[in-house]
Amino acid sequence: MHIRFRQTGGFAGVEKVAEVDIAGLPEMERNAAELLYKRTPTLKKEVLEKIETNPDEKLYVIEFETGDESRQLVLRAAEVPEEGKSLVRMLASLATYEKR
User: What Å distances lie between residue 21 and 13, 26, 36, 92, CA to CA?
Assistant: First the structure.
């Protein structure tokens, strides 16, 4: 499974991105990714347009891709479920500023 991670908001509303294959993650984060994937409904990409957020509020977009489908999870920082916090922390630490 491949993960695309995007963090918006925070200081100056900058955007950071990361892409990882879960096979390279530590077991705890790999398990968290699989659990979040299973719990994530299949959503349309337009979901971001429907979320109103303060530009300084952190928003996480996690897209899970398998060979068969793509699922997207959109969360405010305060909404990250306990079982996904270690994964989000790791992805955020790997994320770099997106070049424009």
Answer: 27, 11, 15, 15
pTM above 0.85, yes or no: no
- Dihedral Cα 43, 74, 29, 89, nearest 10 deg: 170
Q: How many domains does the chain fold into? A: 1
- Closest residue by Cα to residue 86 from 29, 3, 27, 17: 29
pLDDT, residue 41, reads: 67
Domain residues for the domain of 25 are: 2-97
Is residue 73 within 8 A of residue 1, CB to CB? The reply is no
Higher pLDDT, 69 or 45: 69
